[in-house]
Amino acid sequence: MINRNINQLLKFVAVGCINTLIDWAVYLAVLTAFPAENASFYSVAKGFSYFCGIINSFFMNNAWTFKNLPDRKAGTRLIKFLLVNTIGVGLNSASIYFFLNIKTDHTTALIFATFITFSFNFTLSKLWVFRRGKVVAKTTGG
Q1: How far apart are CA 82 and CA 50, in angstroms?
Q2: pTM summary value
Q3: What is the pLDDT of residue 138?
Q4: How many CB atoms lie within 10 A of CB 69?
Q5: Angle between the 106-124 and 74-101 helix axes, to the nearest 10 degrees?
Q6: Among the listed residues 51, 52, 45, 47, the one whose alpha carbon sits nearest the alpha carbon of residue 30
Q7: In tens digits, what is the pLDDT along the chain, a chain of 142 residues?
Q8: 132 three-class SS
Q9: For the chain, what is the total number of helices (H) and then of strands (E)?
Q10: Could you tell me the residue ranges of all domains in the chain?
Q11: Buried b vs exposed e over 74-95: b needs ≥16 C-beta within 10 Å?
């Protein structure tokens, strides 16, 4: 069980790295295709590129990290996943805000915020979004 959890954690990290590459690549491609000097455009482009990473994350984590086969519950899992990631983005922003306001240096604040968000996303993905079957507590006879 511990090896399976560690394996899932490492796969989740790998998927996160791939998602970041997709996010950045799409963002840079949009800026190259549609050059603009406008902060609003950059924000929209970043939102779109981040969403591309999230969609990739869902499919890779669903199939590879947590090994779910395509089924009728995939739509429900996608909605849960989008909800978790939406809350995660808010948690990340709030964490950065908090750490910077208590005078943590920017790099440390970024690391803490990333760790908090990663922990939140992995835990909810494992226990709620991609969970298969019901969790049943084991009891001992007595």
Answers
A1: 12
A2: 0.80
A3: 56
A4: 9
A5: 160
A6: 45
A7: 789 899 999 999 999 999 999 999 999 999 999 988 888 888 888 889 999 999 999 999 999 999 988 888 899 999 999 999 999 999 988 998 899 899 889 889 888 988 999 999 999 999 999 998 765 555 555 5
A8: coil
A9: 4, 0
A10: 1-67, 71-132
A11: eeebbebbeebbeebeebbeeb
Distance, CA of 102 to CA of 94 (rounded, Å) = 12
Residue 13 in tokens: 């990290």
**What whole-number distance in Å separates Cα of residue 109 and Cα of residue 113?**
6
Structure tokens at 56: 């990739």
How many residues in total does the chain contain? 142
The neighbour count for residue 105, using CB atoms within 10 Å, is: 10
Kindly give, in sequence order, each residue whose CB lies less than 8 Å from that of residue 41, ignoring residues fewer than 6 positions away: 34
Give the N- to C-terminal CA distance of the chain in Å, as an integer.
Answer: 25
